[in-house]
Amino acid sequence: MGLFDRFESVRRLHGRISSCGADPFAVRMEKVLSPTEAIIEGRKTILAGTNNYIGLTFDPGCIDAAVQATAAEGTGTTGSRVANGSYSGHRRLEQEIADFFGRQHAMVFTTGYQANLGIISTIAGPDDFLVIDADCHASIYDATRLGSATVIRFKHNDPADLDRRLQRIADKPGNKVIVVEGIYSMLGDTAPLAEFAEVKRKHGAYLVVDEAHSMGVLGATGRGLAEALGVEADVDFVVGTFSKSLGAIGGYCVSDHPEFEILRVACRPYMFTASLPPSIVASVSAALEIVRTRPELRRRLYANVRTLYDGLAEQGFRLGPTRSPVVAVHVDDPELAVGTWLELLKAGVYVNMALPPATPAGTALLRCSVCAAHTREQLETIVQTLTEVAYGNGLLSLPRRAAVA
Ligand SMILES: Cc1ncc(COP(=O)(O)O)c(C=O)c1O
Fold this sequence. Notes:
Blueprint: H1 8-18, E1 29-34, E2 37-40, E3 43-47, H2 60-73, H3 81-84, H4 88-101, E4 105-109, H5 112-123, E5 129-133, H6 138-146, E6 150-154, H7 159-168, E7 176-181, H8 193-203, E8 206-210, H9 225-229, E9 237-241, E10 251-255, H10 268-271, H11 278-293, H12 296-314, E11 326-331, H13 334-346, E12 349-350, E13 352-354, E14 364-369, H14 376-393, H15 401-404
The structure holds pyridoxal-5'-phosphate (PLP).
């Protein structure tokens, strides 16, 4: 048995996909020009497949902060904070994040993946229960493997199912820790957090919310879905990332738990990896200040969401259930989805391709993401291009609304 023989089915599936003419999982950005444009295969292409929701990757203040921090403190820390020491910027950033969320404690991690891996695997021990939404991100699933708690999945976004599953373990000792997300990355739907909070209170459980796709996007001050729904007091741990709205890389967890700080010497994905470099710490700090002081970016983002979501819905595309910066187009036939994706790319529009069995909906998805920096013209081009491709290849066949009217 060869070392990689067990990947045969993945190899076959990947071979079928790339035989369509291009590999959606190996796109090369020859040059990134702005938050919304790149050169791909020699063509200027509109980017509608990022997580750059408020468009901060080219913000001059963030770039300047990163450059200055590199000049002052070097390119990297070369080690973990526990073994090799924290830079003053790490602690300062943690204070800024704690203040932003109005919490007592914050810890930063080197990626959002590691924040989930670390927090979720550490807070629930061998006698505890992790009760996770079935559609949670891979980093949450991987955390359940790293940790030692008993894992229970409940039906996506279903508070009644969560309640039933907690009821079944009600007389078992051990803490119950519920894990959900704010906005889900593939379909763009949001968690019914108020209902989950009620179930959490009923069972005396803890609640962890991953606001990776909702921080900077939702809530009056950009703190995410819990803020938007007024249930922050019920959330015991907020986890998130610097790689989406904040335009950099890294992750965080905030909490008011009085013993939170023990995690710094108990959480392996925090302890055994190099810490964030000064450049990232500085650019994230500048980006956080922008999220805090420029709510108009969120308003612009949501105006853009309406243009794209409503524009595609009007043309008859089957979309995710919620108007959010993740606009997912369902395509039942995976080969048609890959063909559509490729034609879009050739026409100068880049979106993400997601295929079953990895998709929550069970269908292929063309995942389009919206950025506050998209112009109306770019968004109209995305709608028009997708519509033309879809009529050309049979993805859409009914008469267009406009033609009917
Ligand atoms: C819901 C969710 N949590 C965590 C992560 C991991 O974040 P990062 O890419 O910053 O490691 C992602 C990344 O896509 C995500 O979608």
